[in-house]
Design goal:
This protein is α/β, with parallel strands linked by helices and about 210 residues long. The chain has a single domain (about 5-195), classed as DHBP synthase (Alpha-Beta Complex). The chain is built from six helices and ten strands, in the order βαββαβααββαβαβββ. Strands 1-8-2-3-7-4-6-5-9-10 form a ten-stranded mixed β-sheet, with helices on both faces. The radius of gyration is 16 Å and the shape is globular.
Length: about 210
Amino acid sequence: MGHYISIHPQNPQARLINQAAEILNDGGILVYPTDSVYGIGCKIGDKRALERIRKIRNLNKDHNFTLLCRDISEVAVYAKLNNSNFRILKTFTPGPFTFVLAASSELPRRLLHPKRKTVGVRIPDNLVIQALMNALSGPVINMTFTLPDDEFGLSDAYEIKQRVGAQVDAIIDGGYCGILPSTVVDLTDDIPTLVRQGLGDFILSNQ
């Protein structure tokens, strides 16, 4: 059974955040709250942990992960941002949005969309995952935590513990999350394209 770590959603305890970060640094996989549903993830560049996550979610190697970043400057390390994309991210982040962008050369190849050379990025508006990324001094490779045959993502840490506690290295209980995933917007063309409507409302003002 993995660790079960209860962290205050508004005032994350540094000691517990560092404990969770150490688990990721040691190659572990972690379940944590986001501003949409709970996510499951690992440290960037950890191939073995990626394969474990795919096995838990029963996904093939072509299913894409998302990169959770602390801010726009960190997004710009792993993805190419033009002026328009920068303005959109500045408007809608942090928040429940995943933006598909052209990948930079810094992105590990195993995270790259094999045909389009793109990556999905998020800047979540959740103090627990933000504190975790700050402790790591870097991004987290993320996937929405939806189990096979479930219609919605998992939103309660105790339920996650009951169902998959033995398969992950730690679960952060940061309070109840919703059931809707993030809204996905493709920014690789001149005109943004709504790929999936989730929790966030993507409405561009006329400028």
